[in-house]
Specification:
Layout: E1 19-28, E2 31-41, E3 46-50, H1 57-65, E4 72-77, E5 80-82, H2 87-92, E6 95-98, H3 110-114, H4 122-127, H5 143-156, E7 161-165, H6 173-188, E8 192-196, H7 200-206, E9 209-214, E10 217-223, H8 229-238, H9 247-252
Parallel strand pairs: 3-8, 3-9, 6-7, 7-8
Antiparallel strand pairs: 1-2, 1-4, 4-5, 9-10
Helix pairs in contact: 5-6
């Protein structure tokens, strides 16, 4: 079932998305990297953004982060059209990006990475009450702890929407579980997250909705509970909505 907004039992009033991307187009030379994609994100939800290499998901998220403004289309924040021409604009509108590389200063400790050396530990403690390594250079922290520092830096500056790029890449099971806990904590605080990931299990564990891209276009956005992992894989690999996938096509995914 294709959908544009999560249904909330007992809620009749129309909710306003934190972020909307409407009919976004991006081209590099003569190649359309993103062609007419529309997505939205609500407070306290995770939307998985998935697709194969070259599907356009990273380019789409770069338009929201300000790294690559769209050629056409519209971005809305809290229902109002905005212009995001650079990463500073995105931050102004409460949109932060946690890149796979994390962009941390390895030689500095966690509070220094959060905010220019001030001893601001509340944001980290809020996410991970067991975090004790405040004086340790982040180079020596675990992958999960490094994610906590990067996320704390984002939410300390009042981020309402996060773009998370492959947050569990290269992490072991224990660290992956730690990052999952961080994401659930952010959701409980009403922060919306676009989760860009190749890991279909991560996406199913954490997302309410999943948006699948294929060759620059949106195949569809589905409620996680309405689809199987095979159907989402079919969307990723074949570029078809679940309603058009045949049993033979689904079986062929494992052939």
């Amino acid at each position: 079932m294709l959908t544009h907004a999560p249904e909330i039992p007992g809620v009749v009033a129309q909710r306003v998305p934190l972020v909307e991307l409407r009919n976004i187009h991006v081209a590099f030379g003569g190649v359309r990297a993103v062609a007419g994609v529309t997505l939205d994100l609500y407070p306290g939800e995770v939307v998985g953004v998935v697709g194969g290499n070259g599907a356009g998901k990273t380019t789409l998220m770069r338009t929201l982060s300000g790294a690559r403004p769209p050629d056409s289309g519209q971005i809305l924040v809290n229902g109002r059209p905005v212009t995001i021409g650079n990463p500073r604009d995105a931050k102004t509108f409460g949109i932060e990006t946690i890149y796979q590389t994390l962009a941390l200063a390895d030689n500095l400790d966690a509070p220094a990475n959060v905010f220019l050396g001030r001893e601001l530990v509340a944001a980290i403690g809020r996410l991970n009450p067991n975090f004790k390594n405040f004086k340790t250079p982040v180079l020596r922290l675990s992958g999960g702890q490094r994610q906590a520092v990067a996320i704390a830096r984002a939410i300390h500056f009042n981020a309402r929407a996060l773009i998370m790029d492959e947050p569990t890449a290269a992490l072991g099971p224990a660290e992956t579980a730690q990052v999952h806990d961080l994401i659930r904590q952010l959701k409980s605080e009403g922060i919306g997250i676009f989760l860009v990931s190749h890991d279909i299990h991560d996406v199913f564990d954490l997302s309410e909705r999943i948006s699948v891209m294929y060759h620059g276009k949106l195949v569809g956005t589905v409620n996680k509970n309405d689809v199987t992992t095979d159907e989402v894989l079919g969307m990723i690999i074949l570029g078809k909505p679940p309603t058009t996938l045949t049993r033979q096509e689904l079986a062929g995914l494992h052939g």
